[in-house]
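Lab meeting tomorrow. Please check the following:
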Amino acid sequence: MANEFRISRRTLLQTSLGAAAIPAASLFPMPALAQAYPAQDIHFICGFAAGSGADVIVRHFANKIQPISGKTIIVENKPGAIGNIATEYVARAKPDGYTVYVTGANAVATNMHLFKNPTVDAGKALQVAATIYNATMMLAVRADSPFNSAKELTAALKLKGDKASYGFTNPTTKVLGALYKKEAGVGALEVPYKTAADFFNDLSSGNLDFILIDNVGAMQAAKAGRIKILGVGSDTRMKSTPELPTLTEQGYSLDVRSWWAALVPSATPRPIVDQLNAWFKQVLQTEDTKTFLAGVASDPWISTPEEGQAYLIKDINKWGEFVKLANIEQQG
């Protein structure tokens, strides 16, 4: 990248001699910047562990964008602090387009309110280069559970009282669990897990009564016969999975959606942001990716960087209200 910004000795001499008539664009031609990117490998950052639902999504887009970009896309997993480690890493990275955060942007927004002192102001430190898809979280029980609806589960949880428990792995599922408990009037104990793989054994053994799980992990586990999905957290059914009922239509007024985006440091040059946007748009328009997203209960979402950024700011405010409504105590 250094060569792209190097000004020749001759150009400096011309400038110093008062060549005020030389347009700025001739000194720093933006098209050249866009054409020069990418000049090296690109790193896609995943905030969760390898093999997780998030990791599956990141690797799909890394594999699809690699041949388009002409460079190797390296997936880096930086799990921990429910995504905050990855968020801070990207926010403080060099704004050159080689560090791209492919993640659930709603989780980034939620973390602004789950912690008393967030390490970064996501709305200012990050720029949405491209939106990817929207989906929702899911409430599920083990595959052989006698419950076939959220109402049946709720009735059992009320009988079990504070001995009931459930698992979750990320900020969005944490909020959905708290809101469901409030709507349903149950006192189940929440148990946080680092990855979805960790809570499947506890669910199947009966140590957990239910789980709140992301769309990717839910669909994979359901297809493998490990869980039964009782409801989704959006207020309307997803186009990709119209057969799955919402929790709202089962009597619990909820609309907890997730959406994914490619985020970069806010100072990233606009030509690079536009290039990333174009790559993701191209991939999202392919039948292969449409089929892939449908398989994980997700609807493609194409937008401009401006639209994506505006939605991120709006989401930060919305999730602040969700956290208050769910009475979630902020972490230190």
User: Anything to note?
Assistant: The longest strand covers residues 126-136. DSSP finds 14 helices and eleven strands in the chain.
